[in-house]
Design a protein that fits this description.
Distance between the termini: 34 Å
Number of helices: 5
Number of domains: 2
CATH architecture of the largest domain: 2-Layer Sandwich
Largest sheet: 6 strands, mixed
Shape: flat
Strand order of the largest sheet: 1-2-3-4-5-6
Order of helices and strands: HEEHHEEEEHEEEH
CATH superfamily of the largest domain: Fervidobacterium nodosum Rt17-B1 like
Radius of gyration: 22 Å
Structural class: alpha+beta
CATH class of the largest domain: Alpha Beta
Helix content: 25-40%
Oligomer: single chain
Length: 247
């Protein structure tokens, strides 16, 4: 009976140690249903609860992303999500007051979650959709990467030890995925890379399956093509990464 007990105790201690590396989050939500003179606003994001600089950095970064998305009043300083929600709502009300026949409601939807975390790195995916009139709305995905040891957000260029080498590697994989001949121009099959030259996506992040590049709509293709996603396994990408993933 001693051996099974020791095994269980070891597993519990191992799980406990692993959880010590994880940040604690709770859901934070705002749900403003559409009405006669107000837009539909749905926000669901994780709120870091730890009393650390990293937790504060993550919460501040998420709030700043939402403020940038919803702020329509350039004359007023907006410093909180609540202010941003009011700005979005007030802008819609001003529109329908000026144009009473305006019948198409505005929408703003935000969803974020932790998509990857280890002892060195935490990555959040930040999905948004807005509609403020026109033929269609616009959706996008943003990766937010953080260095847990330095307790700060990481820019794309800081992810790599050799950005140029990673870009060449990613282009080869992109061409294979999208069936673009290696000896042809990158836009041969209809993509819209500036200058007909491959470049890394604006959004790159860690995921359970590998380092992921997301080209949002209009970045390299038409709206109808939707986002273009390239996932590169860590077994191949690790040699280019500053924060390597243990396999």
């Amino acid at each position: 009976m001693k051996t099974p007990f020791k095994v269980i105790l070891f597993l519990l201690l191992t799980i406990g140690c692993e959880n010590e590396d994880k940040l604690t989050f709770e859901p934070y939500e705002i749900d403003e249903g559409a009405c006669g003179n107000c837009p539909q606003i749905e926000i669901s994001i994780p709120k870091a609860l730890d009393k650390t600089r990293l937790a504060k950095t993550i919460n501040t970064t998420l709030e700043e992303e939402i403020i940038a998305l919803l702020s329509f009043d350039e004359e007023k300083e907006i410093v909180s999500m609540e202010d941003a929600v009011y700005s979005f709502t007030n802008s819609y009300r001003e529109l329908i007051n000026r144009f009473p026949d305006e019948t198409i409601g505005w929408e703003a939807k935000v969803n974020s979650e932790v998509i990857y975390e280890d002892k060195n790195t935490i990555s959040l995916v930040f999905n948004t959709y807005t509609f403020t009139g026109g033929a269609h709305g616009y959706g996008s995905t943003t990766f937010l990467n953080f260095d847990k040891l330095k307790e700060m957000e990481v820019e794309n260029w800081e992810l790599f030890t050799n950005t140029e080498g990673f870009e060449k590697f990613a282009e080869t994989k992109f061409r294979i995925q999208e069936a673009i001949p290696q000896d042809e121009n990158i836009n041969t099959t209809g993509f819209m890379f500036d200058g007909d030259v491959f470049h890394l996506a604006e959004n790159i992040g860690y995921t359970p399956d590998g380092i992921q590049l997301i080209y949002n709509q209009y970045e390299i293709a038409s709206y109808a093509d939707g986002p273009i996603i390239l996932t590169l396994p860590y077994a191949e990408a690790n040699k280019y990464l500053k924060r390597k993933v243990r396999l």
